[in-house]
Amino acid sequence: TIADPACGTGGFLVRAVDYLIKANTSEEGVLRELVEGEELLTYTGDRLSDAQRRHLETSMFAGFDFDATMLRLAAMNLMLHGVVDAGISYADTLGSGFRTSEQFDLVFANPPFKGSLDFEDTNKTLLARIRTRKTELLFVVLILRLLKPGGRAAVIVPDGVLFGSSNAHKTLRRQLVEEQKLDGIISMPSGVFKPYAGVSTAILLFTKTNSGGTGDTGDNLPGVWFYDMQSDGFSLDDKRTALPADKSDLPDILERWHHRDQEASRKRTDKSFLVPKSEIASNDYDLSINRYKEVEYEAVEYDKPQVILKRLAKLEDDIAKGRKALEGMLK
After folding, report:
1. Is 207 exposed, middle or buried (0-12, 13-18, 19+ CB in 10 A)?
2. What pLDDT does residue 157 have?
3. CA dist., res. 80 & res. 226, Å (int)
4. C-alpha to C-alpha distances, 315 to 104, 225, 305, 311, 324, nearest whole angstrom
5. Is residue 198 within 8 Å of 240, Cβ to Cβ?
6. Residue 324 burial by CB count (10 A; 0-12/13-18/19+): exposed, middle or buried?
7. Any residues with CB less than 8 A from the CB of 184 and at least 6 apart, and which?
8. What span, in angstroms and rounded, lies between the C-alpha atoms of 100 and 93?
9. Cys-Cys crosslink for 205: which of 184, 241, 244, 308, Cβ 3.0 to 4.6 Å?
10. Residues 6 or more apart whose Cβ sits within 8 Å of residue 291
């Protein structure tokens, strides 16, 4: 079961549907068709059983939002991708009336940033975990509540969540590290949401355990995995122009995420590396990649001041000669 507590038009859910169908379709069943110059894929060689297909079409996905227009778009979006009875519901997931808990295996979310709620309208079970009005913090707590034990989440958050100094920020980070299993953090460049917003963001990847496990050496991961994304395959200006495939960090992120057990030897100057849980705890649970990443500076050698001054004097002489030649031409 997969959920998005602030689904909007259902983009994350639709991508999950596409991924699952493609992963369960034989290569012979993929029909490639060019439509107006764009390659479209049609899947026919289905490996899913009838029960699995019914689950995918009716009960696998759930999306929540309190914008009726967005919900209609999300339902239609999923329907066009084969989910005939998607669980798209009108709900204020941070409100006092929303009581869903421990129902989902996976949560993907890009919740609203920089919102502020009234304590009276906020769900008391969320406030019991963390006392704050900030929506970006409350949504992370909500997602932990929605997940089944063992469930996993990928959540986009503003960078302030990673290093904010308020008690609420520190409490949330401590809970993720000490009470749950924080798997990784992918730092994204500030232009990925342009032209709509220029805020710097990151992806939090965590597993609900209710018993810790961050940096558990049992899975050969002596710490939290960090990745410093430089490019998502598009320019970081307002135009967001597509870049050549080799300019995107996304394939490397996926490859390294699936082989995190091999990341222990990576240096802090690399794009990805592991940070021990003890080091994170000693830094007051600061999760900003800049706290742990090391930057190599190349030594730059400059000429002696006397050499630079001689060079400037020569340039001034050349300029004076050029000016005199120009004056002579104008007589």
Report:
1. middle
2. 95
3. 36
4. 71, 53, 15, 6, 14
5. no
6. exposed
7. 205, 224, 225, 226, 227, 257, 260
8. 9
9. 184
10. 163, 283
Cα distances from 111 to residues 14, 16, 36, 156, 269, in angstroms, run 16, 17, 34, 7, 31
**In degrees rounded to 5, what are phi and psi of residue 261?**
-65, -15
* 280-287 contact pairs (CB < 8 A, 24+): 280/177, 280/214, 280/223, 280/224, 281/177, 281/178, 284/170, 285/170, 285/173, 285/174, 285/177, 286/162, 286/163, 286/173, 287/161, 287/162, 287/163, 287/173, 287/182, 287/185, 287/224
Can you list the residues of the chain whose pLDDT is less than 70?
27-46, 114-116, 216-221
The SS3 of residue 245 is: helix
Give 43-106 as a DSSP string.
E-SB---HHHHHHHHHTSEEEEES-HHHHHHHHHHHHHTT-TT-EEEE--TTBTT----S-EEE
With 0-12 / 13-18 / 19 or more C-beta atoms within 10 angstroms meaning exposed / middle / buried, residue 3 is buried
Q: Are 144 and 207 in contact (CB under 8 A)?
A: no
Q: Which amino acid is at 156?
A: I
Cβ atoms of 73 and 10 within 8 Å: the answer is yes
The identity of residue 181, as a single letter, is K
Q: Tell me how far apart the 2 most distant CA atoms of the chain are, in Å.
A: 96
| CA–CA gap between residue 136 and residue 187 (Å, rounded) | 16
Nearest to 195 by CA among 158, 230, 161, 234: 234
- Res 150: pLDDT: 96
Structure tokens at 268: 């802090």
pLDDT tens profile 180-214: 999 999 999 988 988 888 888 999 999 999 998 89
Cβ–Cβ under 8 Å, residues 149 and 102: yes
- Beta carbons within 8 Å of 179's beta carbon, 6+ residues apart: 209, 210, 211, 212
